[in-house]
Amino acid sequence: MQTIRIKPPPSGSGSSDGDPSEQGLRKDLFPLLTGVAVAVAAIGAALALTGSASPLRGPLTLFFLLAAPAVAVGAALRGLEPLGRIVTSVAAAVALDLLVAQGMLATHRWSVRGGVVAVTVISALILLLVLAGRQRGRTARRRTS
Question: 71: helix, coil or strand?
Fold first, then answer.
């Protein structure tokens, strides 16, 4: 079987993909954007839990309710392609939010704070199960090596 490789463009072709400074900038930008997203989500959760009357409460809480479960499910789907992983994790986040809301409405226990707490707990459990599974997999590989 023959492997076909894609040749990179020559350095003088005007393409900015080969510029090391731009690659470093892209590499440094991802952790920064991740940190900003975590901060925005945390502020949204805090505004919802404190009952603040801020106009940012709604959008930031919605961001938290979508981002927290999406990150937890996305961590579990490490083997998928990036686009499939994003679509699947966002769909799972919406489904989880709807299930929490439906459960709270069915039991007559609806509250914004309760919903945020429930989504936080479920997302944390999913993330902890994923991390525990990875640790268990590492331990099993060490024993067999």
Answer: helix
